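Fold this sequence, please.
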Amino acid sequence: MPSPRAGGRAEARRAAQGKGGRGGGGGGKAEAASAGGGRAAARKSAKPKKNVKKIVAWSTAGVLVVIAGVGGAIYLKLNANIKSFDADAIARNRPPEAKADADGNKPVNILLIGSDSRGKNNADLGGGEDGGARSDTTILLHVYADHKHAVGISIPRNAKVELPSCKLPNGKWTKGGNTDLFNAAFSMGGSDDGNPACTQNTVEKLTGIRVDHTLVVDFNGFASMTSAVNGVDICLPKPIYEGDINPKLKKKGDLVLPQGKQTVEGQKALDYVRLRHGIGDGSDIGRMKRQQAFLGSLASKIKKDGMNPTTLLPLADAATKSLVVDPGLDSADKLLSFGLSLKNIDMHDLKFVTVPWRYRTQDQDLDLVQADAGKLWETLKADQTIDGQNATGQQPDAPADGTSPAPQQPAPPTTPAAPAADTANSAIRVAVYNGTSVNGLAGKATEQLKGAKFAASTAGQAASTKYRTTTIEYGSGQKANAEKVAALFPGAGLEPSSARGISVIAGQDFAAAMGMATGAPAGGGATAATPGVPAPPQPLPTTITNDARSADDDICANTSYGSGG
């Protein structure tokens, strides 16, 4: 693992702790209440705010270690490294387990936690000498039952949530029920190892979703992992200087990360995922965006390099040396078996979103937008992707060539204007939205466009679900291309737009052509519920769908939040 850079910057980081910028927060109240004594008081007075969103390593551990299931050498190395936390600290009153379908398919929920523990070599990498640990980054990774789709939900560390009863290092349980910052759960008890079980209990209480596995990675593990893969590609909209990494320096300092695309590992990778200041409004929201971009880039590189022992052994070895897992993943065979189950996830179908939030008026922390967050949790429970596709693993097989899905469901129409063999269509990029409440409609439209060789991608739910007619919106100079797209959707309307590119908003006419339900009946009444079948989740708000990131997105796009800096 690379050693930290010598000189003033590393020393300044160790000397300088505390808040900075919007979205800061620590676990002070919880630590003072639960740990007590001088060390807790010192941590609180130090205002530990310069923390790493180590989540990069978690998803990494989840995506990487999971992929590494080949060969006895990997097994032996990993088995010697793995550490797990106490199973007795997991709450007894938990959400139910997801049910498997007839083929045994079931979704898996993995909690990825980034710890900023200053133990071992972490103080040199992260700066500071105070004890304890905080969770600077937390992602709930939902792997759908088809094991071809996954979505990572970032939970802001400074969101106000209700903390449940949690077990402390001394064996006692807290009363629970108090409201505190989300990352106070990991600090509960003041241990240098953190309290991952308390974070897991908090996420289950917050979401109503059962967490199947939890993985925690620290600074040291993250830095080692990025070096093990020979660096990760990133992109910055502005150059970053020492003063951006540590505003306490009170000066610009030397250049740390140049503007534009670059490959980073070790300390510089850590600087990137920790960075808040110098870009956007300096908030944790922007930092989470960059961490999501980093995780997508990391996962893409691992998959591109190949899933073989030569590539994966150094990575898995580095990860597990700084990895703490739940008891269900406490051996190499469990980790590797779990990892192999993720190998079929395509990078475009690995998404990242942030749970809906808003700034509080009384302080600089966040509140979760419960109504919108609730729709997100229900969507995951129903195993629906964020763009409305069914990923339960129970999807019917595609019909054989030359057959129709069913007599009453005619195949989507095709026209000579946009033949499937028209390779020129591959240069036309199309974003597809669902303009109805019919689950999976945008995905169906995307499939139809891809069948005609268009570069189509599902963008999510439209702002309205009341589109009766499919609409093709096009930007300047795109009318001719939009007409080619419209040829696939007879009766579709064409509308110029101030936005760039082409968008398809699938309407009720397309749903009818596909033989899919179109929601409420014409009379306006509610659709009759089928006994024993849960109602489909409500459409997700555009605040979620429009901000979703795919692992294969441009690494230079959507990496900051707000203005300034």
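The chain has 19 helices and 21 strands. The chain has a mean pLDDT of 77.
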